[in-house]
Amino acid sequence: KELHFDDKLIPNREKKLIYAFLLKDLDKSYMKIYSPYDKDHKWVSSIPNSKPFGLNELPKKSKTLIITKGQKDRIIWKKYFTDVIALQHESLNALPEDIIWQLQDEYEDIWINCDADETGQKVMKSFEEYGFKPITVPDKLYNAQGIKDFSDMVKKHGLVLFEKYLKFKKLIQ
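and the corresponding structure tokens:
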């Protein structure tokens, strides 16, 4: 079956798996397409860069909010936390200040999770100025195995290691 996005055909010549994420914001819907096997068109999106995934779905059941750098990491974090959002990209611009202030009013603890690489580290440092607490994969995994994010860590080592790390960081018991 063909996949269309904003009236344009999304090529899938090799008939490989493609993921579609829907984001509803008030009366408008956006879509982000992820094609993990397509190097040239890995991501196609109509979502504005400043609209995080899950913001309008936050149940506000916890005093802790996790902000992660992508949808695949959000899925993993949601296994352990109710209140999780994902940025559209790793940048301070991905979360407008009015949203930051709103989140600061609603949560006691806000954790920011980006890649372990230099870009991710710089972004987390920027968010620290707002009182966000940084968390990323251990340096040992990044330096020895090139694992930059928690979804890759889980892919390679399973959820058990992720859970142990959350316990080590005292995020869960």
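(Above: one complete record from the training split.) DSSP finds six helices and nine strands in the chain.
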